[in-house]
């Protein structure tokens, strides 16, 4: 409701008011330019997911199906990355990106997000792949299917609930990332979570504009969840039976 109020009305505790769209118009005006921040966030999320999911599926499949020397150590090393507080990595990553001239670029944020999402997705997807009967893969192999066909036509449809779940969590982690975006960006690569802090000015928080920005900020997550929900149900009912 506050998003559709004027600044004066936003301080009145009433449900009866004249709704306005001025707050949303201001967000996409040249004065604030929310569209730029929106594009940065969407591009970072898209690039992170388009790399995370294929890499995680292949890594999880390899760890699940192949006998790899030191597999347990590899799995522990992947899991151990989740034990490290993110703030511990802040200064080293800042120095590395500064030396590589990647400060205030979306590339730096994509790299940081990949370090968070890939280990998480590997562990999550591997649990689903472990429950896929290996007999179906052996049967497909006898019928002449190669490794790529087994992964794309049998494994992925069967483990789709886990892949979709990993995608959802990675989307949320990347979309809401604030700390690294705050430190590693200045002007060009600013994301939506950082843009929300711009409404705290000399007069305090401009609640009506922040509320409007909050609605705009939540829309992609809501739309994404609605789209993925149907695919998730389809994945639950699909399998690899010929």
Summed up:
The chain is an all-alpha fold. It has a two-stranded antiparallel ribbon with strand order 1-2. The chain has helices at residues 22-27, 34-65, 71-80, 90-99, 106-130, 134-142, 147-158, 160-175, 179-184, 192-195, 207-237; strands at residues 200-201, 204-205.
Number of domains in the coordinates?
1
How would the global form be characterised?
elongated
Helix share of residues? 55-70%
Give the C-level CATH assignment.
Mainly Alpha
The number of E-state strands comes to: 2
The largest sheet, given as strand count, sense and whether it forms a barrel, is: 2 strands, antiparallel
Strand content: under 5%
Secondary structure category: mainly alpha
How would you characterize the overall build of this protein?
- With 242 residues, this protein is mainly α.
- It has a single domain, classed as MetI-like fold, CATH 1.10.3720.10.
- The protein is 67% helix and 2% strand.
- The chain has eleven helices and two strands; from the N terminus they run ααααααααααββα.
- The chain has helices at residues 22-27, 34-65, 71-80, 90-99, 106-130, 134-142, 147-158, 160-175, 179-184, 192-195, 207-237, and strands at residues 200-201, 204-205.
- Strands 1-2 form a two-stranded antiparallel sheet.
- A hairpin with a 2-residue loop joins strand 1 and strand 2.
- Helix 6 (134-142) packs antiparallel against helix 7 and helix 8 runs antiparallel to helix 11.
- The longest helix is centred in the first third of the chain and has 32 residues, at 34-65.
- The chain starts with 21 loop residues before the first helix and ends in a 5-residue tail after the last helix.
